[in-house]
Design a protein that fits this description.
This protein is α+β, with helices and mostly antiparallel strands and 177 residues long. It has one domain. The chain has an 8-stranded antiparallel β-sheet with strand order 1-4-7-6-5-8-3-2, with helices on both faces. The chain is globular. Helix content is 31%, strand content 33%.
Length: 177
């Protein structure tokens, strides 16, 4: 039992070390603060499907491709329409959606401040990925608005956050140029 535990801990160390160096970034990937006045969203512990998604992104980057290549054709097309072909993926965050009890209206705005702030002249886009219990995924491309303090706000429509609330796992990948 001790050998198995030691092996799993060693594997976890290797995976987390690889993740730390695999995706180049011009901003620090440490999350400072997720501001959601409704308390609906929070940063989550990564589920196995989230780790698998990140592994897929890392593999694509190791092949010399842009991180967006790990996402669906529709997502890549949406990123291209926003001028983000070949953009950097600076952040990858597993999210937890706690329910919709405190959400009123048709939109919710979440604001995320990262360790290194974005600038208002940057184009920033979030790709929200929702996994169901069968690990099937759906992606949504949401333009971000960079605030004066360098944080990024994403406005989510009710139908999208209802899908997020029903999902088994949710991730946010942030692309910028």
């Amino acid at each position: 039992m001790k050998k198995l535990t030691a092996l799993l801990l060693a594997l976890l160390l290797v995976v987390t070390s690889a993740v730390a160096f695999a995706v180049p970034s011009k901003v620090n990937t440490d999350l400072i603060d997720l501001q959601d006045p409704t308390g609906t969203f929070e940063v989550a512990e990564p589920a196995p499907i989230v780790v698998a998604q990140l592994d897929e992104i890392v593999a694509v980057v190791k092949e010399g491709k842009a991180p967006e290549e790990a996402f669906s054709e529709e997502t890549r097309a949406a990123l291209a329409e926003l001028g983000l072909t070949g953009a950097e993926m600076n952040e990858f965050i597993p999210l937890k959606v706690n329910g919709l009890e405190n959400v009123e209206g048709d939109e919710i705005v979440i604001t995320i401040a990262f360790a290194t702030p974005y600038t208002q002249d940057q184009t920033v886009v979030g790709v929200f990925t929702m996994f169901d219990e069968n690990n099937e995924k759906e992606e949504a491309v949401i333009p971000g608005a960079v605030n004066e303090d360098g944080s990024v706000s994403f406005t989510l429509k009710r139908d999208l956050f209802e899908k997020m609330a029903a999902a088994a796992a949710v991730t946010l990948a942030v692309f910028s140029k």
